[in-house]
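Minutes, project check-in

Agenda point 3 was the complex the collaborators sent over. CS summarized: three entities, 1045 residues total, and the question is how they sit relative to each other. Sequences were read into the notes so everyone works from the same version.
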Amino acid sequence: MSPVETEQPSTSTGTRRTNRREFLVVSGGSLAAVSLWGLSACGDDDDGGTGEVLMNFSPDLKQIVPGQVDAYNNQHPDGEVSTRTTPADTTEAFDQFRTQFQGGGSDIDVIMGDIIWPPQFAANGWIASLDDRFTESDREAFIPGVVEGNTYEDSVYGVPWFTDAGYLYMRSDLLEDAGYSEPPATWDELMEMARKIQQDAGIPNGFVFTGAQYEGGTVLGIEFIRTHGGDVLDGDTVIVDSPEAIAGLTTQQTLVADGIAPDAVANYEEDQASGAFLRGDSVFMRMWPYAYDFLGDKELSNLDVDQVELAPLPVAEGIEPVNVGGGFNFFLNAEAADPDAAYSFIEYMTAAEQQKTMALEGGYLPTRTELYDDEEIIEAVPGVRLGREIVPTTTTPPVSPYYSDMSLAMSEAYNANILGSMSPEEAAATIAEDLQTIIEKGG
Amino acid sequence: MAGALGRPRGARRSGLGWGFYLSAGALVLLSLAPILWVLKMSIVPRAELFASPPPLLPQELTGASYATIFDDPTFVRGLLNSAIIAGSTTIACLVLGAPAAYAFARLRFRFRTAIMTAILALAFFPAAAVIAPLFIEFRAVGLLNTFWAVIITDTVFVLPLTVWILTAFFRQLPRDLEDAARVDGATTLQAFRLVVLPLAAPGVAAAAIIAFIVTWNEFLFANTFLFDSSTWPATVAIPNFATTHTVDYGAQAAAALVITVPIAIVVLAFQRRIVQGLTAGALKG
Amino acid sequence: MSTRPDSAASLGLSWARDRGARGIARLTGGGSRSDERRTAGLMISPPVVLIVAVAFFPVAYSWYMSLHDSSVTGVGEWVGFDNYAELFEDPDFTRALLNTTVFTAVSVALELTFGLAIALGLNQAFRGRALVRTSVLLPWAFPVVVSALMWRLMLQDDVGVVAYLVNSLELADAPILSQQSSLLIAAIGVDVWKTTPFMALLLLAGLQTLPRDVVEAAMVDGAGPVRRLFSVTLPLLKPTILVALLFRTLEAWGVYDLFWVMTDRQLDSLSTYTYEGVRISQLEFATGTAAAVFTFFAALAIALVFIRLLGTRTAEE
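CS then shared the predicted structure for the full assembly.
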């Protein structure tokens, strides 16, 4: 009688151990395979050491900026400036930075961002004050309104790079046919001209602008208010509930209600508004200067250069010309490893020569006032040539660390105003209430 | 029984009249029309995109949009990155999900239903709210800006679906072979490995393809955890066919099609497998 | 060391050894073989551990934060359920809740109906079936983010083809993208277009597992196709339908990309509201977290309901 081998698995310790080992081998092997893949796909570790600087820019600058960065690196062989692309949409880019900062910090030393960022970043200590580096005399070379936009609680946090302003685009050919030789100086004039031309020439729209519920819509709403002499905030005081502001909102609503602006303007972002104008479907448009470059290009527009003129935005009687713009600036990360190297790079990028290149090659509006007298630039950049009076009158959106919340509240109210679901008085009151709540909550 | 068999078959055939084919045709049209429109968007110039009223047929053709996207190294690299991320996630989901699914399908243990419910529910927490804490977590372990962060997160969110598909699949398999193996002395794990897995190909294929597609199209996590444009998958690269003020709709349309084509091919090639995998498998009947 | 395991003593010995086994076997109750229980533990733990590590922490942390006056920088002081009270007083939130509920209910109902019809159709062999199957699956393969953008362009007044059709048929008197109601309808439409294929796929799979003999028996009994559908096919399909519903409902409940991109933030869902509070706004962080937790628990409740319905079926197996 030979001994019976125990084959029953449930009583054999040996078999159980084999199972566990087998399992671990199999799963360990798979995890190892996956980790090899993952490791091989690691992103670059861009933490700057001494002299290394990381900056970001958005994709539309990729024709110009890398060249300038290379030139700088050639001049400064001991420091290396490297770059990273950030989302084209400024709110998205802001989101990314905020998430990074909230998560512990961003590794980007030189932050390129929108004019509305400084208070929100500075209030949290994420960007460094530039008072000592960007001296008083330095600042004088730049457009005052933009420098102010970069100032928060009496400290300046950003160096202006290029700016944007709100222009009035006009169909000069249509105006001429209708017998008008001057651009409209007041909103009433614009409405009158638009109505006439819409009727006589059969143009569907009189005036198009960006009225969708997004940052651009907020900018437009503020602009309507300011061109009527009102404003939204004065420091920490909410002043939007004023007759001037209400007048501005009334104009905005009347434009739509009277059919001068299409109902759909409540969904218009830049593409839709400029699309309508460039198609030939509107007499006037409020837009940033970039759209001017599309004229004459058959693929992008039905209109030619000689059909369109730029002018300052109309204002209410007796009000000084004003518009609301943005523009992009450089900020210094508070935790930059080598702030001196970072700032010297900022100085380079905002120097007159580089700004001139930006203007000539990309049509970007410089922030150094002297460049507005530069012959070459005047020649090449329509925004400068035709808008030399406009850019200095540019103001920026309210400076506040809670601007995101404010913009959310405002864009909703402005949109309701355009749609007619709120009266201008109601809209102004709602904004006032919301902003007051935000300021109180923010403390 | 011949008569009984003959009648139902005939009755079935007569149901597929012209009404059926008409509806089928309408269905194909409805499904494809928007995609065809996107195709049109990718081959016409920008002015036509903003033409009013929109012309039905392309008036002018241009390859500019496709040139734009293939000239963009970020997008081209993005296709590779998408493949890496989706592939890794799929493998991870299968490796982790198949054993678990088998356990849910065949084995009895306490808290089984509770654990299943928890797995399902946890994955449906609104992704938007999980971003910030996850960001902190990954930063703490130094996984930010690596594929790992995205792969891990995607795996966690795709696992429930994978587990469910595989559980249903395993449940359908007849127990005979496994029981036979048990009688022969195999442990549960051996039964799983040697008997069930070889039969699992259709189910695994189905789960794999679905996991791949879902991850291939994922955007939010990749957008948040990856900073370097060289690590972006294609879905994240697409919105950057834009400038601060304008959107290159033509390029985005072209990119969308280019992203979808590989998936479409995979689906077309494996459609029978997909359906088969979601059903009983080889031992049916 | 007895080699004859069928003796009572050795059985008792091995049983005792099993009971003494460490670790995951503790999870299981008495009854089945310990090998099965331990293996189950081994097989379940990797995914469970991963999910707990990756998903549990944020969920728990969000829950914790929602009970405090939290902000992006810190947790702040305890406020109990104040954030939730504030949440329900916010008209934006109640509107988001309403939108999400309507969206979920309607799109899932439509997707189930159409999906079932398509599945039934595809379950039969006919010429061109492969073409139909592929073209029906394509919308699902399109990434949501981009397709939402394309759809928005198609819905734009003046330039969008869908808007053009709608206006020509005089179905709307205001731009589609301007009204909450038409935006919701559009969102539901796009979601149905995109996700019905997935439902159809799941249901088709279920149809193909139906025991043929039962269906054929019904046919022999002389039941017409409609009666067959309702008395035989659908009841047999119940578990598949319930699981498909479970997944789709939970997914629809968390809708975010579609609303955010296609309606350009004009239409709020629970998730877009959460996103705004937690990622964009500076001051609404606490209420945003509360919204996230609410969404989660609501989803959990939905899941429990479906699983309860399913559980009765599982027990039968």
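Noted in discussion: Chain C is about 75% helix and 0% strand.
Follow-up: revisit at the next meeting once the mutant set is ready.
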